[in-house]
From TrEMBL:
The keyword Transcription regulation does not apply. The keyword Oxidoreductase applies. Keywords: Disulfide bond, NADP, Oxidoreductase. Residues 19-257 form the NAD-dependent epimerase/dehydratase domain. It catalyses: (E)-sinapaldehyde + NADP(+) + CoA = (E)-sinapoyl-CoA + NADPH + H(+); (E)-cinnamaldehyde + NADP(+) + CoA = (E)-cinnamoyl-CoA + NADPH + H(+); (E)-4-coumaraldehyde + NADP(+) + CoA = (E)-4-coumaroyl-CoA + NADPH + H(+); (E)-caffeyl aldehyde + NADP(+) + CoA = (E)-caffeoyl-CoA + NADPH + H(+). Gene3D superfamilies: NAD(P)-binding Rossmann-like Domain. Its EC number is 1.2.1.44. GO terms for molecular function: cinnamoyl-CoA reductase activity; oxidoreductase activity, acting on the CH-OH group of donors, NAD or NADP as acceptor. Pathway: Aromatic compound metabolism; phenylpropanoid biosynthesis. This is cinnamoyl-CoA reductase. It is an enzyme of class 1 (oxidoreductase). InterPro entries: Epimerase_deHydtase (IPR001509), NAD(P)-bd_dom_sf (IPR036291), NAD(P)_dehydrat-like (IPR050425).
Amino acid sequence: MPAADISSSPAGGGHGQTVCVTGAGGFIASWIVKLLLARGYSVRGTVRNLEDPKNEHLRELEGAKERLTLWEADLLDYNSLGRAISGCHGVFHAACPITDDPDNLKEQMLRPAVDGTKNVITAASAAKVRRVVFTSSVGAVYMDANRSTDVVMDESYWSDLEYCKDTKVYMNWYCYGKTVAEQTAWKLAKELAVDLVAVNPVVVLGPLLQSSVNASSVHILKYLAGWVNTYANAVQGYVHVRDVARAHVLVFEAQSASGRYLCVDSVIHRGEVVDILAEMFPEYPLPTKCSDEKNPRAKPHKFNCQKLKELGLEFTPVKQCLYETVKSLQEKGHLVTLPNKQH
């Protein structure tokens, strides 16, 4: 029997269990913390700086006063991670180093991603946790110039590391880092006999819990705020942040869960994205032209997410995901609310 969707299950699945969430203040991690608290878990969230006000939203989550503690830790400091993980039943490794400095990719992004993952897996082994859930990315799955868009990819597919490096594009280097980090996690987990499960989401959208704007939200904000005049001839996969958090908890709680889990709702062209946004929010200066009108329209990649659906996850439709993203940007003050042209 497939596991029930935890979104409709009563709270209390984590009663008596303590888990650690790395990078707890991040977009995805914050939602994982929120859901874990709702499920009755005691949560230890690692953050870089306990005094940083950007983590205040975590303390305001329901159940946080009773069952959330924040621990100062650095991915490259094994001892700090070890202290946070010691005594835990499980670990959610969601911390993801991001940099916009192309000259320091190796030091600021690749090293923390790979060495940080090693530290987390090693600390989890020492603590004898039941399971580690690793937040990977579809970037570790689909990047391959020789793969046709007609191929329906599942969890057996991996990105081509040489292609990621040769293209010399920042986001491709991000995919390189996520691929190497995940491969490192699987290799070390096998050596140390750690029960590891990975979740591989596409671009994650939805309501912000933190006060700052994350990179994936900027992906939508730029169209609404008039920062760009055209949209790229490119496709993008999307998934709701709440669904990604649910996926993490599902694969932790399901005894039968193993391996990787693709987490994708829809893959659509950027032109479709702006069309959907224009339909719901016509008051904003959304672009109407593609930056590349000479070449054929890019075709969407295909993914098989049956493995995650069999655990009981139902994906939020992309239109609702985009709508909730925009409303959240407005409510958080990142996007000015304009009079709707239709009224």
